[in-house]
Amino acid sequence: FRFRATTLVPSELEKWANLWALGSLISGCIWGAASFVLFVPDSPIYQGFLVVLIFGVTSAAVLLIGTHLPSFYAFVLPALVPIVVRNVIEGEAAHLTLAFIAAMSTLAILSFGRNYNRVLVESLRNRFENEALAREISQRADELEKARAAAERARGEAEIANRSKTQFFAAASHDLRQPLHALGLFAAALSEKVKDPGVLQVVNSI
C-alpha cells in the first residue's frame, strides 16, 4: 500500500526492491514453518495435501515475484527447503522418496523462475531499445524533412537570384546599348563634317 501511494523515484528503487525481498523472505519463512508446525506424522493424506499446497503457492509465486530474482529466491528457498528437510527427518522410504521429489521440484521451480526472469528482462530491454530506435528514426526523419525544406528554400532563392541577375543584365544591356549606339551615330556624323586632321583623329578615337 505504501508503494502504491508513493511516487516512484529512481534513487529509491533499490530501497523498495530490498523491502520487497524482505517481505518475500518473511512470507517464505511462514510457509516453510508450516512444514513443521502443521505437519501431521500419522496422516499421509494430510501430508500430501500440505506438500501440494506449499508447492502450489510457490509455483504461483514464480509469475508474481519472478520479475525480481532476489525476492524470488528469498521466498522459494525458505518455503520449499523445510518440506524437504521434514520428509528426510521422517526417514521412511516413502518420505525419503517424497523428499527427493520435493528437492527436484524445488530445483525445477528455481530454474523456471530464473529463466522466466531472463526472458522477461530481455523482453523489456528489447521493448525499450525498439522504442528508443523508433524515436531516433522519427528524429532523423524530422531532421531530413527540415533539411529537405531548407534545400527547397535555398533552391527557390537561387532561382529567384538567377532570374534577377538575368533581368538585370538584360536591362543593363538594353540601357547601355541605346546611348552607345546613338553616340556612335553622332560620332560618324561628326567625322563627315570635320576637315581638320587633328580633330578628325579625336572623332575617330571616340
Structure, described:
This protein has 206 residues and is mainly α. Helices cover 87% and strands 0% of the residues. α1 (13-37) packs parallel to α3 and α3 runs antiparallel to α4. The longest helix has 101 residues, at 93-193.
Approximate strand percentage: under 5%
Rg: 47 Å
User: What is the 3D shape?
Assistant: rod-shaped
Helix content: over 70%
Oligomer: single chain
- SS-based structural class? mainly alpha
- Main β sheet profile: none
Average pLDDT, all residues: 88
What's the order of the H and E elements? HHHHH
Poorly predicted regions are none
Distance between the termini: 105 Å
Summary of the model, kept short:
The chain has helices spanning 13-37, 44-65, 69-90, 93-193, 197-205.
List the defining traits of the structure above.
206 residues; mainly alpha; rod-shaped
Question: What is the topology?
Answer:
Blueprint: H1 13-37, H2 44-65, H3 69-90, H4 93-193, H5 197-205
